[in-house]
Amino acid sequence: MAKKRGWLPIVGGIAVLLVFVIAAGLFVVVSMVRDRVEIDRTHTEDTIGDEFERVRRQFPNQTPMLVFDGETPRLSEAAKAGTSTAALENLHVLAWDPRDGELARFSLPFWLMRLQAKPFRVGDMVSTFENRSLEITVEDIERFGPGMLLDYADPRGARVIVWVQ
User: Fold this and answer.
1) Which residues span the domain enclosing 98?
2) 98 Rama class: left (phi>0) / alpha (psi -120 to 50) / beta
3) Contact at 8 Å (CB) between 159 and 48?
4) Cys-Cys link to 75, which of 16, 51, 67, 79 (CB 3.0-4.6 A)?
């Protein structure tokens, strides 16, 4: 008479397989993100403005998705009225930290952004923002379309521009 197999080895095998699949997925995502970050330490306060102007010139006369009343971010009128149907491919970030003298460039495929089911809380991304409850979704960004999402400089000299193409 043949022995019956228990369900425990089957469930254990599936659990081990899931652990390997999740670990491989995390490795791929971390590798992809790490390869897309570039830190440049060759700029100074005098030369950094050119880098930011180069990005701004790509979007002449466009109001960013997020605008500021002092330190309080809010959605611009252009963002509220957005009806773009253009396919977005990448989200880009250019950030300057004057304390470390570092210019960071970062890009992320937009399909990875679509995996985020919850809205992004803007105040969680930049700690100096007073409106910590403002949230934007990937759908908000898609409706706004290609362009600048954020163009911000804080009183200490740090700067950041975020845009999508």
Assistant:
1) 39-164
2) alpha
3) yes
4) 79
